[in-house]
Amino acid sequence: MSDLIFVNGLSAKKPHENAPSFIIADISAKVAELHEWLNNNQQLANDAGFINLQLKESKAGNLYIAVNDFKPIKKSDAPPREEYYTPKGGEPVVDDDSIPF
Predict the structure, then answer these.
(1) What is the rounded distance in angstroms from the CA atom of residue 39 to the CA atom of residue 69?
(2) Which of 4, 16, 30, 60 sits a CA distance of 20 to 30 A from 77?
């Protein structure tokens, strides 16, 4: 993952101590700031038009919201598993003891 990208206009806090246990966090949106941030960061959206966010907790225990920029590797983009090939890229090497049948 690259450097953290914080979301302007969104903030998260731990709920009040008397809040019910099903409340995980209090999240506030400052509409004008969030609107501007979304307009300026459209390049972060995935093919479906979503910007994925994560609610995280700092080492100090504070909550914050950051962009989740994880992108899975497509099978076609993944390099071959090196342990199955010789160093020169020759025939696949299979250890007979590793075959489960």
Answers:
(1) 17
(2) 4
